[in-house]
Specification:
alpha/beta; 6-stranded mixed sheet; 27% strand
Length: 249
Amino acid sequence: MEPIIEVRNLSKIFISRGRKITAVDDVTFDVYKGEIFGMIGPNGAGKSTAFAMMTTLIKPTGGSIRVAGFDVVKEDDRIRPIIGIVPQKLSLYPDLTARENLELMGNLYDVPKKVMEERIEYYLKLVNLETHADRLTGGFSGGMKQRLSVISAVIHDPQIIFWDEPTTGLDPQTRQAIWKLARKFNKEGKTLIFTTHYMDEADKLCDRVAIMNAGKLIALDNPENLKKASNSTNLEEVFIHLTGEEIRD
């Protein structure tokens, strides 16, 4: 399989009050084109920091990352147009309507007007927001905001979609809707990478799973192989088997 993301000996060190904190510690893995790849572990495991480096938001302290063949430090301007990011903290403008939020994102990526209009109609209908297109998003529910955030991240038709904790705090019905969207985008040929501390989410959704703890990559395989290797029935048991610790959100 062809890797679309290559991570080699990646590390990130932060300085806090004179102390060095290693958030990511010598991590190496590939993400293959067209797969759904999950990075799981408790808060503080390093997955969101790795996510931020892969999306060019912060620079590595050491090691390298190539996204679609481009270096995240030297060629970040070549990477940003081909990726879409759904952040953990939603970045919608509450004083704009749903349509205006999408138009803003489309204009940032120079999407042609006619193409953008067609995509906006398509995506609003896809996430059942077409009747709310001209409402201010400040009045939307959490689930509505999450769905709008997802489609705003793909309005420019990226090759790769990054989702950071995509269903944290959502009700079960909205979580299922987000999973359905993820599978649809994947069937359309997009590569998906997401972080989560919900082990059931990774188990049901991912082709392969990278388990992180204390900044290190401690396991990487498909969910079934991970469970078989640990003689476990779910990924939470796998995590406990590998670390001796329960998952702490």
